[in-house]
Amino acid sequence: MITRRLACSTLVLLTLTTAGTGHANPPSDVSVARQMLEDNEPWGAKDLLEREQLRNPGNATVRELLGRAYAELARRLHAEGQPTEALSFAAKALEIKPGQVDLLYVRARAHEDLKALDEAIEGYRETLRGEAGYRDSADRLVYLYKLRGRGLL
């Protein structure tokens, strides 16, 4: 993927730039990953943070940032029409921080895109339990129930 290659290129550039400065203390992987997330480069951040999590599994900051990276990747992949991959990253993000309404919605939409309509309906319901006014979920539920009522599902 172009996005992934770009993020990895940025990571290499950051590493080379840091290495060439002669600083005794180059930035940590966590601070580089945080900057990558701020720069909207979740692929590179995810790679760095997963490595850091293996080295230091109890680090709450790493876990929180990794959840942010997974969440952003789930949103992007769904928007790019890759529902299976979006589901995978949404599950990882929701494992770290359950109840994120926007990710519950992404997960439900991905299920709908994959024609897993029972899971989609349950996902929209879960979204509404988290935030009763989440209009998009309510609209999708109405749409799916209308289709089901007409025997089209």
Residue share in β-strands: under 5%
Q: Name the helix and strand elements from N-terminus to C-terminus, one letter apiece.
A: HHHHHHHH
Largest sheet: none
Q: What structural class do the secondary elements suggest? A: mainly alpha
Number of E-type strands: 0
**What low-confidence regions span 5 or more consecutive residues with pLDDT below 50?**
none
Report the average pLDDT across residues. 87
Cα shape: elongated
How helix-rich are the residues, as a percent range? over 70%
Query: End-to-end span in angstroms?
Result: 34 Å
Q: Number of helical runs?
A: 8
- Cα-atom Rg, whole angstroms? 19 Å
Commentary on this structure:
This protein has 153 residues and is mainly α. It contains 8 helices and no strands.
Short précis:
The protein has 153 residues and is mostly helical. Helices cover 77% and strands 0% of the residues. The protein is elongated, with a radius of gyration of 19 Å.
